[in-house]
Amino acid sequence: MTVFPPASTEPVPVPEVAVPPVPGVATPETTSTLPELAGPEPAPVVIDAAAPTPLALLDRDRSILAFNERVFHWARREDVPLLERLRYLCIVSSNLDEFFEVRAAPHLAGALADGDKPGESTATFEKLADAAHELVARQYALYNDALIPAFAANGIHLLSHGARNHAQRKWVRDYFNREVAPLLVPIGLDPAHPFPQVANKSLNFIVRLQGTDAFGRENEIAILKVPRVLPRIIRLPAEVARGRASFVMLSSVIRAHMGELFPGRQMTEFSQFRVTRHSDLAVDEDEVINLRTALRRGLTLRHYGQAVRLEVSSGCSQHLLDFLQKQFRLPDAALYRVHGPVNLVRLMQLVDLVNDPALLYSRWTPVQPTGLRSGVSIFSQLRERDVLIHQPFESFDGVVDFLREAVHDPQVLAIKQTIYRTGSESVMIDLLTEAVRLGKEVTAVVELKARFDEEANINWAEALESVGAQVVYGVVGLKTHAKMLLVTRREGGRLRRYGHLSTGNYNARTARLYTDISHLTADAALTADMDAVFAHLASQNQLPRLKRLWLAPFELQDQLVARIEATAAAARAGQDTRIVVKMNALTDERLIRALIAAGSDGVRIDLIVRGACMLPAQQPGATENIRVRSVIGRFLEHSRVFYFRTGDADELYLSSADWMTRNMLRRVELAWPVRDPALRQRIIDECLVAYLGDSRDAWTLDADGRYRCTEPAPDGGHAAQAALMDRYRMPGRRRERAA
């Protein structure tokens, strides 16, 4: 059992060893403990019986925007390398794009339905839009007032047309004529040439013209769509850059020469514009015969869904603006005038084009998994003990090696794997394909509805089917989000299973960017449960009673509520209790209400929630015993860890699921226990204690619903991710852990 001392921002004292201390995290010679809640001893909260109204929860969409504010903070931090600040700025823009693509349509529809009599829907939409407008304005202010001058100070120049000298202008003209103009087709609007279909998030120009066209007509509006195949940032060659890193934006190149596309006409006004469309695929699975075919058909329409946001250059005239708003049927609140490129996401290209190590984070190379011995069969090691891999501090290669050994082991008979997000290039899929060719039975549960990965997954499904793998698409109406890999091997006269469970995806690229826990095991009960789940997903037969796994949508939510309620009952009985949960989002009302009730009964609760959180923490008379914190760092926090303690007993679970209603009721998700004392302590050390002790990159949710950045200690404070990187890069520590 883990013992919890009073909270402290100081690291727990440790003997002198060659391991950088993490706040509260054990070294090989110590056992770490979870810090307690600050403040007085928790006690049952007295709630006025005359006021039975449930505590109002926080708004989910505002919470999502608040998360992006925390990411934006990293773009503002001057201690972050310059190109990394730009990267964070681009990440915020990418997140906002997805927010509008997925979350904005219902709010907009409600506002439009209100018509000329604005009601609650209009007020909600406008309030949300105000928060988004404020964040976008701050983004462009940072870009123009801080990042662009900082680029120049470091010899990086994004040259506008007015800033280019004669030689540079000549080169840009030649580039335009050679590479750009042949791909541009301006469309003059008239009854025979209606407003063209403008794809989601594409770059376009609207132009107002004087004079008449070739037929003597005065059609004054033209639309110019910019092909996506063109790079958005172009590096000037050395002969005209004068020894500097000089770049031009594609939009600037086109603006400088756009008049040449309209010979005989005079441009009087023009503006960039970009429209964001609702892009969440909706397929009635009960009405389709082949889900894969239906989704592929839907992908062709995704780029032309309902318009939800319009971005234009800040100098766009009211005449052109009125024309665009009427065309896309958008209210003023959905309009964004921006002081710069209408798509900041494309500035990510600049990071790769400059690629100056002095302006980037020092390269992080994940270490070999400390629980695996090189040169020794992974199967034989798993027969001795389970193995955890903490990504990205440890390498995802350990998981790939597990699959590779299974593929080439003649005693392995069958491999089963779920596929949610593997990326467009995947060594895992290549290995599954090789396994089929080597005569092994391969079953792949491919989730075709993984948002924005549908096309890649359809392609993988077809590729695996083409070589003879058994491909299934899970259960109609549910997304298969569970991450499982199961290997069946003949050993002597019996079959033995080996499994991999993970909080994250089978994606080698994101495994270097996301924090996740991989669990390799030969535990007979756990792997038998995994086999039963695979059989259930393939056959859709009745699921047998599972011994170790909790499976959504059947029992995961019920089991979590039961654990919370059991902890609350123990607190009422005067026992020492604790709940610590790390996840990416907390929006499920049933789980939130259970946590609030447990906190009212005196349970100490710490919630480490990276993104959206609807639980109002630190509310007088209701949630004083609940703390919510969010840690934003170099890596994207992605692991899900659930810890419950009642008296002398404690349990720890890993999971693929966040505490969201969709995860509990509309997805196939897994949670599983970690029972090995050493592995459980390691997870507590590295995934819970380290983050509760973070005093540099953490934010706390206050009673007013706002997040407050943790004030660093005089010595700069402790950052969980940085401390874990220090810990894993120490060779002595790795040798001791592996031993």
UniProtKB/TrEMBL annotation:
Domain Polyphosphate kinase N-terminal: from-to ranges: 58-158
GO terms of biological process kind: polyphosphate biosynthetic process
Pfam families: PP_kinase (PF02503), PP_kinase_C (PF13090), PP_kinase_C_1 (PF17941), PP_kinase_N (PF13089)
Listed cofactors: Mg(2+)
Residue stretches of biased makeup (Low complexity): 1-11
Active site: 481
Annotated residues for binding of ATP: 95, 514, 610, 638
InterPro entries named in the record: PP_kinase, PP_kinase_C_1, PP_kinase_middle, PP_kinase_middle_dom_sf, PPK_C_dom2, PPK_N_dom, PPK_N_dom_sf
Domain Polyphosphate kinase C-terminal: 377-541, 549-718
EC number(s) per entry: 2.7.4.1
NCBIfam families: poly_P_kin (TIGR03705), PRK05443.1-2 (NF003918), PRK05443.2-2 (NF003921)
Its biological purpose: Catalyzes the reversible transfer of the terminal phosphate of ATP to form a long-chain polyphosphate (polyP).
Family: Belongs to the polyphosphate kinase 1 (PPK1) family.
UniProt protein name: Polyphosphate kinase
Organism: Xylophilus rhododendri
